[in-house]
Design brief:
Bound molecules: nicotinamide-adenine-dinucleotide
Number of strands: 11
Largest sheet: 5 strands, mixed
Number of helices: 12
Oligomer: single chain
Structural class: alpha/beta
Shape: globular
């Protein structure tokens, strides 16, 4: 990949490669944009097969953060980081402290938080080295794990999808198929079950699936079968790429709304869904609850849970605007979400 070609597809402001022999750290921090404010995005800890895979992932994820924060109306830019390794085996205090020094060296241009493979405890360790971290423990003035807010915001999005499809956001008896019931998927499952929805779930971790089956009476299917479940809404909440030219023809729900980042596997995936009249709720609109919640850590007077969660509950309204723009302009919902974000990014700044 040619990172410095200004006519190429990579338009990130800065990409930082971090390597440290003594702690074993191998990480990449990507700052996509600081146009609206400091770049903020989580640190993903994942056993990437190659450095090229890690780089491709972090570049995509960082750009998605720019669009997510812009569309959510936040004064934050987009960034992301990946640590290459197995979070079950490779996490050490020394590795996180070394990583935190790299974050600190960016002087606040990049602010980190949790993502797949990292937790509040990890953020607490990072917080001992740098102030440029969010999502650390509530007891220390942080907003804690963002996944609760992400699940709450996604619930608001799913109700907006229901209003659009059926004229009512009453979810009793509606059937939702969730791919991945980790941190966010399990919170979302709780809200949906509380609203009376019927759940079918899949997770590559049998323990994660069993927990949600036992807690909410969910049916469990194999991970490669979840998108084929005849549900009312399919909710990808695992890793990226769930919506591909292979899976889209097999999706058996009239709508897709989930928390996973980068759900569209290819540039034409949104159009492929539109061609099948599947209503797609763009991922970065649906899953903005985490970053909205975190933005309240920087509010005057400090973090306020109720105000932050009330803001997350308005994600459904943003999604309705996206659906309106898509139908008025006869474009995909993904393109409509991009227009919303770009209209903020391109607006003159004082
Ligand atoms: P997580 O690691 O806690 O959960 C992911 C779950 O998906 C795990 O239980 C894992 O076993 C399962 N999984 C992985 N591959 C799967 C597959 N092929 N089929 C079925 N299950 C599979 O991570 P998380 O924090 O819940 O994040 C999930 C997604 O949501 C990610 O894409 C993340 O980037 C996105 N997201 C998370 C947040 C947040 O606040 N945590 C915010 C915005 C976006």
């Amino acid at each position: 990949m040619d990172l410095l070609d200004t006519s190429g597809p990579v338009d990130h402001e800065q990409v930082v490669f971090c390597q440290d022999r003594s702690s074993g750290l191998r990480a990449i921090i990507a700052i996509h944009s600081t146009r609206l404010g400091p770049s903020l995005g989580g640190t993903r800890f994942y056993p990437y097969a190659t450095e090229a895979d890690a780089l491709a992932d972090v570049l995509l994820l960082a750009r998605a953060m720019t669009y997510k924060s812009a569309a959510a109306g936040l004064d934050l830019g987009g960034g992301k980081a990946v640590i290459i390794g197995d979070p079950k085996k490779d996490k050490t205090g020394s590795l996180f402290r070394t990583y935190a020094r790299y974050v600190d060296s960016l002087g606040g241009r990049y602010i980190t938080t949790e993502d797949v493979g990292t937790t509040v405890d990890d953020m607490n360790v990072i917080h001992t080295v740098t102030k440029h971290v969010t999502g650390f423990a509530r007891a220390d003035g942080g907003s804690g794990d963002p996944s609760e807010a992400t699940g709450w915001g996604a619930f608001s999005a799913i109700r907006a999808v229901a209003r659009r499809l059926w004229g009512s956001d009453f979810l009793t008896g509606r059937h939702i198929a969730i791919q991945g019931v980790g941190k966010v998927g399990s919170h979302l499952a709780g809200h949906l079950a509380g609203a009376g929805a019927r759940l079918t779930i899949a997770d590559v971790s049998p323990e994660a699936a069993e927990r949600i089956r036992d807690r909410h009476g969910a049916s469990v299917v194999a991970p490669d079968a979840i998108h084929r479940v005849e549900a009312d809404i399919y909710s990808p909440c695992a890793l990226g790429g769930a919506l591909s030219p292979q899976t889209i023809p097999e999706i058996a729900s009239p709508a897709v709304a989930g928390c996973a980042n980068n759900q569209l596997a290819t540039p034409d995936s949104a159009q492929l869904m539109a061609d099948r009249s599947i209503l797609y709720a763009p991922d970065y609109i649906v899953n903005a609850g985490g970053v909205i919640n975190i933005s309240y850590e920087q509010a005057p007077g400090g973090y306020d849970h109720d105000r932050a969660f009330a803001h997350c509950a308005r994600i459904g309204e943003t999604l309705e605007r996206v659906f309106d723009v898509a139908s008025e302009q006869n474009i995909t919902t993904a393109a409509a979400a991009d227009h919303l974000a770009e209209s903020r990014l391109d607006a003159p700044r004082e």
